């Protein structure tokens, strides 16, 4: 699970990114999932009579986590999310790790947003966290975030490809695919991720000579 492999995943995650931008709307609807045994109660969502997706956010001001709706993840879940995100996109010589650029905040906002697509992902992510901790306990006697990196990788290797995962692990593989795409979407939409990709969009150019001959040949274009 190296960084260059995850660059391929961002193509799928990029389709979901515009939806996240729309979630920074003024509406504050929805509800947080019920707490599981051994976890602290989650904050209750604020009721609202607003319908639809509300108004567009003001993208010229900074918005802070939890500003638009109550956040879902507990501190242990945020720690687990950071550990898993950094397994997927670790720091290397070119750029920082996923958790260091705010991917955990990105995922927490995503699973907390009161809109159908996001509410669909919430139980998948929360259920996946519970599965990881249960599986880590079964195999190694402690929670996932407390395992050695090699032990964490052993568990992830069993669920990182739904095509190779055992039938009993298909739900866990589905969780991993969702979390992987969210991690890639959060990381590669950050300034550090854009730099890692070499993306220079939205930068004025003095001139544009069109695509290079090498790119045209690769695409079989004249």
Describe the structure.
With 222 residues, the protein is mainly α. It has one domain (3-26, 70-218). The protein is built from nine helices and no strands. It has helices at 3-13, 17-22, 75-88, 103-112, 116-140, 149-157, 170-188, 191-197, 213-218. The chain is globular, with a radius of gyration of 19 Å.
Which helices and strands, and how do they pair?
Elements: H1 3-13, H2 17-22, H3 75-88, H4 103-112, H5 116-140, H6 149-157, H7 170-188, H8 191-197, H9 213-218
Helix pairs in contact: 1-7, 3-4, 4-7, 5-7
Summarize the entry for a quick read.
The chain has 222 residues and is an all-alpha fold. The protein has 9 helices and no strands.
The amount of beta strand, in percent, is under 5%
**How much helicity do the residues have?**
40-55%
The tally of helices reads: 9
- Summing up helix and strand content along with how strands pair, one would put the structural category as mainly alpha
Shape: globular
Q: Give the topology string: H per helix, E per strand.
A: HHHHHHHHH
**What can be said about the biggest beta sheet?**
none
Strand segment count: 0
Mean pLDDT, nearest integer?
81
List keywords for this structure.
single chain; 222 residues; mainly alpha; 9 helices; 0% strand; globular
């Amino acid at each position: 699970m190296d960084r260059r492999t995850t660059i391929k995943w961002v193509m799928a995650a990029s389709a979901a990114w515009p939806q996240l931008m729309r979630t920074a709307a003024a509406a504050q609807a929805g509800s947080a999932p019920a707490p599981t045994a051994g976890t602290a109660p989650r904050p209750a969502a604020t009721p609202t009579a607003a319908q639809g997706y509300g108004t567009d956010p003001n993208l010229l001001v900074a918005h802070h986590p939890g500003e638009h709706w109550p956040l879902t993840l507990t501190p242990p879940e945020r720690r687990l999310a950071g550990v898993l995100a950094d397994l997927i996109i670790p720091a290397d010589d070119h750029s920082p790790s996923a958790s260091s650029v705010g991917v955990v905040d990105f995922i927490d906002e995503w699973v907390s947003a009161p809109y159908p697509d996001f509410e669909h992902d919430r139980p998948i992510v929360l259920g996946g966290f519970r599965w990881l901790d249960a599986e880590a306990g079964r195999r190694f006697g402690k929670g996932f975030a407390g395992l050695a990196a090699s032990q964490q990788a052993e568990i992830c290797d069993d669920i990182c490809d739904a095509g190779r995962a055992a039938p009993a692990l298909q739900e866990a593989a589905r969780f991993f695919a969702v979390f992987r795409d969210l991690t890639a979407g959060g990381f590669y939409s950050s300034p550090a991720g854009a730099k890692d990709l070499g993306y220079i969009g939205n930068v004025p150019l003095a001139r544009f000579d069109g695509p290079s001959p090498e790119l045209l040949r690769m695409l079989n274009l004249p």
